[in-house]
UniProtKB/TrEMBL annotation:
Presence of the UniProt keyword Lyase in the record: no
Superkingdom, natural source: Bacteria
Record-annotated Helicase/UvrB N-terminal domain positions: 84-241
Protein name, entry field: DEAD/DEAH box helicase family protein
Type III restriction enzyme C-terminal endonuclease domain location: 667-745
Keywords for the protein's UniProt record, in alphabetical order: ATP-binding, Helicase, Hydrolase, Nucleotide-binding
Length: 762
């Protein structure tokens, strides 16, 4: 499997937040190192404030101080210290790699150092550079040339100093901040390195330093060590900044949840006296939650993984026993066999389970002692740690790989982010040294399917992406601690949720007939001349493109003056717009050469904004054309829906029992369900499941509800995908059914009879 990457708006915004801080600087490429920023403190501060203003962030009053400049290196100019706050699981590593590529493309800077607090994170970063290389090659025509600093392989530093293209060194803090013999080599004149000190070679390039998880690299000693790199600027990426600098972007936990960029969280609290019985119960709950999720997602081609944190390796791997299984591993095997012995109704899933022996479905990922080869508790500074975890990420995502349960020491809480972790078990005592935010962050990423595609359709994202945390605290205690760290997140009690079985309404002939009517398969075709697209885009840009010039304010003691300036930022204009619109460079070239001169002249005002707004207009026109020209053809075969288990719901908050729904309670949008219940003409209603999709050239469309009335049925957009273009395509799809008994409505279906007291819902 190969993970797929795509341009996402929220990540593009994070990249632009950093890159736009240097607007007005001309591009300058050099193999000798990074050229100076070229902006004075006043201009730089105004740029930063402009970025903060558009993001609604607090405005900086002066440039933040960060890493002190070493006395031995009197380099000129200010050193910007920019903070980017991104919730765990939203792709901050991807974001700063793309930021590196943008800083190179726009300004010519080519020497970067990524500093991480430990080996686990270092290996995770290195892996991300590897798996995104092809993606960035396609987007930029080149890829970052990365290497991991190794004091015994200093030839890489020669390439870092003089090599062409984007050069990135990944280094963990211990490699230059501890007193070990190997780590001191960075500060020593080495015979094998032409009597040079590696630190001098690095600092001479004036690198841009990117700090991953800066809250763990904040000691005075660490900052003093970092200052020896003599950075041109410092960019800090974290979900939990402890020391604030100039914050230019924020995507916090609540925003990430509301925008459906991360999994939602369910908590199962296992209370009781500590001991083997409690741990066994936790392991049982982890297996139960895993099988429940796996049973639901197997047909979708989504591999389910569970991560169990333990406090001692010996409780998983006991080398004194013939089978080398520790007490937790033995408990797991016993509980897993007992729970999978129950007959599964789904034949394909039953075969999948039967093909995986209990002994092969779990694995332990820990540090490895280099002398004995045995697993050890270890720490993030062990240079031999985590190779298997981090280098086999794609293999673990494959349904062909039997490992589904991962045991790890708590050191794995950072550095390992697998998108398909759906269950986390805390088989250890809470000691207060590890935040809940770090632990659950290992499972917050949105899942991917067997094609490596992220399961992120807004209409179904939280129906599929839910992380269950099995903890040894009470639900209330865990949630209280989590909310102190993350803010007011939506967290549900996993012990109170139940699967809703379908009731007799589902089996009624009227409902089954309605299903038969709406589940016809269909294919679409779209045909229009590229000339029509070009012509309409030219008109739309000439009429609607607005790009205000960059404005700067200069203040002195006696006066304040305001200026507008043309930007001298250089962009690959065709490449940028082509990437954001998914059109060819040739088509974009024809559009931009067709606009009026005064429209194209707006580029000088602000190239970055010109690209974004042009792409938005072109995408809108493209969507309009696709909707106008899409044609559907129905097929004789039908799709099957409602094949999976029913939705989960907290019965304590379920509300009144429903008489006309196919479940006794509504898992989503209960107010709409109650409104349908009150209508005399509604016989049966149901929230359509995520597998009911209408194919469109703009992506699959998920409607909201199926409402069965006397002699007809209505599919509504209410509560489903609200994209107007895809809704318009859905109308075409229903028209193609050519069934007078099936209609499509944006809201609730019109009623034949509406009592006065209930007319508002029609």
């Amino acid at each position: 499997m190969r993970l797929q990457f795509k341009v996402q708006e929220f990540q593009t915004e994070a990249v632009a937040a950093v890159v736009d801080c240097f607007a007005g600087r001309s591009s300058s490429h050099s193999r000798a190192g990074n050229a100076a920023i070229g902006l004075d403190a006043g201009r730089l501060l105004e740029n930063i404030r402009a970025v903060q203003r558009r993001a609604g962030l607090p405005l900086s009053t002066c440039l933040a101080a960060g890493i002190p400049r070493p006395d031995a290196v009197p380099s000129p100019g200010v050193v910007p210290n920019l903070d980017v706050e991104m919730e765990t699981g939203t792709g901050k590593t991807y974001v700063y790699i793309k930021t590196i590529m943008e800083l190179n493309r726009r300004y010519g800077w080519s020497r970067f150092i990524v500093v991480v607090p430990g080996v686990a994170i270092r290996e995770g970063v290195r892996k991300t550079f590897e798996i995104t290389a092809e993606h960035f090659q396609q987007a930029y025509g080149t890829r970052p040339r990365h290497f991991t600093y190794d004091s015994s392989a200093l030839h890489e530093l020669e390439r870092f100093r003089s090599g062409a293209g984007v050069q990135v060194m990944i280094i963990n803090l211990q490699a230059f901040n501890t007193a070990g013999r190997d780590n001191r080599r960075i500060y020593e004149e080495l015979d094998g390195f032409s009597s040079q000190r590696p630190i001098d070679v690095i600092s001479a390039s004036r690198p841009i330093v990117v700090i991953d998880e800066p809250q763990r690299i904040g000691s005075a000693r660490s900052l003093e060590s970092l200052s020896r790199f003599d950075p041109l600027m410092v960019l800090r990426y974290s979900a939990t900044h402890r020391v604030r600098h100039d914050l230019v972007h924020r995507l916090d936990a609540l925003d990430a949840y509301r925008k459906k960029l991360v999994k939602r969280i369910a908590v199962v609290g296992v209370e009781g006296d500590a001991g083997p019985a409690k741990r066994r119960l936790q392991i049982r709950e982890v297996i139960r939650a895993h099988l429940d999720r796996e049973r639901e997602l197997f047909a979708r081609g989504v591999k389910v993984l569970s991560l169990l944190f333990i406090d001692q390796v010996a409780r998983y791997r006991d080398y004194s026993r013939p089978d080398q299984l520790g007490e937790y591993a033995r408990m797991f095997v016993e509980e897993y066999r007992a729970m999978t012995a129950v007959a599964e109704p789904d034949e394909s899933y039953r075969r999948y389970l039967a093909a995986i022996p209990a002994e092969r479905t779990h694995q332990g990922y820990f540090a490895v002692d280099r002398r004995s080869g045995r697993l050890i508790d270890g720490s993030a500074s062990d240079v031999d740690a985590y190779d298997l975890i981090l280098r086999d990420r794609e293999r673990l995502l494959s349904l062909d790989e039997p490992v589904r349960f991962v045991f790890s020491h708590s050191a794995l809480r950072e550095g390992w982010d697998n998108p398909n972790v759906f269950v986390i078990g805390m088989l250890k005592r809470g000691d207060g040294t590890v935040s809940r935010r770090q632990e659950i962050g290992r499972g917050l990423r949105l899942a991917v399917d067997q094609h490596g595609e992220r399961v992120d359709d807004p209409a179904v994202v939280h129906e599929i992406n839910e992380l269950t945390v099995v903890t040894d605290e009470s639900y209330a205690a865990f949630v209280a601690g989590l909310q102190r760290e993350r803010g007011a997140d939506v967290v549900v009690d996993g012990r109170r949720t139940r699967r809703l079985p379908r009731n007799d309404n589902f089996r009624r002939p009227e409902f089954q007939e309605a299903l038969d009517r709406i589940t016809r398969r269909a294919v679409y075709r779209v045909a229009f001349a590229s000339g029509e697209l070009i012509e309409r885009c030219v008109v739309a840009l000439d009429e609607g493109l607005v790009v205000a010039p960059l404005r700067y304010t200069v203040r002195s003691v006696s006066e304040t003056s305001r200026h507008t300036l043309d930007s001298d930022v250089a962009l690959d204009l065709l490449g940028e717009v082509a990437e954001q619109t998914r059109l060819t460079r040739r088509t974009i070239g024809a559009i931009l050469t067709g606009v009026r001169p005064r429209t194209f002249a707006l580029y000088r005002n602000d190239p970055s904004r010109f690209v974004r707004r042009s792409a938005e207009i072109i995408c809108r026109v493209k969507a309009e054309l696709l909707v106008e020209h899409v044609r559907y053809e129905t097929l004789p075969s039908r799709n099957r829906i409602f094949t999976g288990p029913g939705p989960r719901i907290d019965l304590d908050r379920a509300g009144p029992r429903l008489a006309k729904h196919i479940y006794d309670h509504a898992a989503t949008d209960p107010a709409f369900a109650q409104a349908l219940e009150a209508r005399h003409d509604v016989l049966i209603h149901a929230k359509l499941p995520s597998e009911f999709v209408i194919p469109t050239p703009l992506g699959d469309y998920h409607p909201g509800w199926l409402v069965v009335l006397d002699g007809r049925c209505v599919v509504t957009a209410h509560g489903g995908d609200d994209d107007p273009a895809r809704i318009a395509c859905a109308r075409r799809w229903f028209e193609a059914l050519n069934d007078p008994g099936v209609t499509f409505s944006v809201a609730a279906p019109p009623a034949a009879f509406r009592p006065a007291a209930r007319s508002a819902i029609a």
